[in-house]
Each structure stands twice: as C-alpha cells, then as structure tokens.
Design a protein that fits this description.
Length: 92
C-alpha cells in the first residue's frame, strides 16, 4: 500500500513536490498523477491549476474530519455515453 498523504507530509524530505499529491475520495490506497496533456492531444482536457502550497495544512486535516469520513449519500449519476475514441481501447 502506498504511503498516505499524511505520512508523506510528516516525512523529513523536501515537500516541494507534495503539492501534486492531493487527497481524493475513494483513493485511500493509491493516487493518480498527470503532469500535463501530451503535446498535440486535442482530446486531453487541461486540468485546473493546483492550489499553492504543499497541501499538508488545514485542507489535509479536513480529510480526517467527521464530515469527510461520513459524506451524505448522493443519487446515482446518469450514465453518460463514452466518446467514440474509447472504443479502440475497450473493444479491440
């Protein structure tokens, strides 16, 4: 299992890169990293800029709060058709 963001924040190493590791629901044993869209990829949506700082302060503490651990249930999201470009990955 990967170390949690909390453990990474407590490490004595440089925290410059920790701004790229952000907590996310249902991602308590792994994380995803995308640094930028590949050059020339018209289908890749650029992500919003990440907040400044290393993410080890109050925003990280919230993930250990009652509110974060017991979210209100949401109705199921409607199924959205996948783009046709996904067929080459899913069905070939």
């Amino acid at each position: 299992m990967l170390p949690s963001k909390k453990e990474l924040c407590q490490s004595k190493s440089s925290h410059d890169w920790l701004q790229k590791i952000r907590p996310w629901y249902k991602h308590d044993d792994h994380f995803h990293v995308r640094l930028k869209c590949p050059a020339g990829d018209r289908l890749c949506d650029k992500q919003e800029p990440i907040p400044s700082g290393d993410g080890c302060g109050a925003d990280l503490a919230w993930w250990f709060s009652y509110e974060a651990k017991h979210p209100k249930p949401k109705p199921p999201a409607p199924k959205i058709p996948l783009p046709k470009e996904c067929n080459s990955v899913l069905y070939e």
